[in-house]
Design goal:
Two copies of one chain form a homodimer.
Chain A lengths: L1 H16 L6 E5 L5 E6 L12 H13 L8 E6 L3 H9 L4 E6 L24 E3 L4 H15 L1
Parallel strand pairs in A: 3-4, 4-5
Antiparallel strand pairs in A: 1-2, 1-3
Chain lengths: ~150, ~150
């Protein structure tokens, strides 16, 4: 588990270097094989949906040839937003492991808490706060520089 | 407005013909020019995020070269889900006009009601129920055939 989060943190750092909000994600199957990994690319690709989680899920699903990945886990450095939480549910992921909690934009432990809604038809296992300090430090440095 | 919803309904019917859940969307700028239109393609493209709304937003943003489309309106035949509602907010759309209400999967008037959450940083104007009967009839026919 720590190895995948370390990779996700490297994707987040690479995103920051590209001028993107530093969030990274790694999609892993039940054998521990990496299917996809990416960082935020919303500005680079002019795509408001190009969050790290969505890019990893889309790439993994394309590789599998199926929109459903029920044996897969997603490691992501920040609590997914409402869009990404719902995408995780639609992809039927088994588990989501995230780093820093996001009171301002998170959609799992904050806001609409999608996985707890009756309109959510698949809720993955959730593990939050893994390597939280490192993920938060990346974000803090990024936004400090922006100001 | 009715013309764009008619186009969205045609996209929904085309989606049904491809074996997809029949939802269609049309993205329009403030001059009434169509930037993008599409229907659901989650199965065809093996992409759980390939909802009509996301595809229209992604195509419109790519065409503009910007992840933000603050002058644009989205016409969609069904109440957007949580993922699509959040994508609409992230894209900073001006307005969303939808057809049928979706108590089982909707994310605007149902479930987490994303636009009403403190974690939502841009809420568009919302007009629901436009051509609701036609949109609902398409969905009903599709799911009746599937059973």
């Amino acid at each position: 588990m720590p190895d995948f989060m370390t990779l996700a943190l490297e994707e987040a750092a690479a995103a920051a270097a590209r001028g993107e909000v530093p969030v990274g994600a790694v999609l892993v199957n039940s054998k521990g094989e990496i299917l996809a990994q990416n960082g935020n690319r919303t500005e680079e690709w002019a795509d408001p949906t190009a969050h790290a989680e969505v890019l990893a899920i889309r790439a993994g699903a394309a590789r599998r040839g199926s929109p459903r990945l029920p044996d897969c886990d997603l490691y992501v450095t920040l609590e997914p937003c409402a869009m990404c939480a719902a995408a995780i549910s639609l992809a039927r992921l088994r588990r989501v492991v995230f780093g820093a909690y996001d009171p301002k934009g998170g959609g799992i432990e904050h806001g609409g808490r999608f996985f707890q809604q009756p309109t959510c038809h698949h809720a993955p296992e959730v593990i939050g706060g893994v390597e939280e300090t490192k993920a938060a430090a990346l974000l803090k440095a990024f936004f400090k520089e922006k100001r």
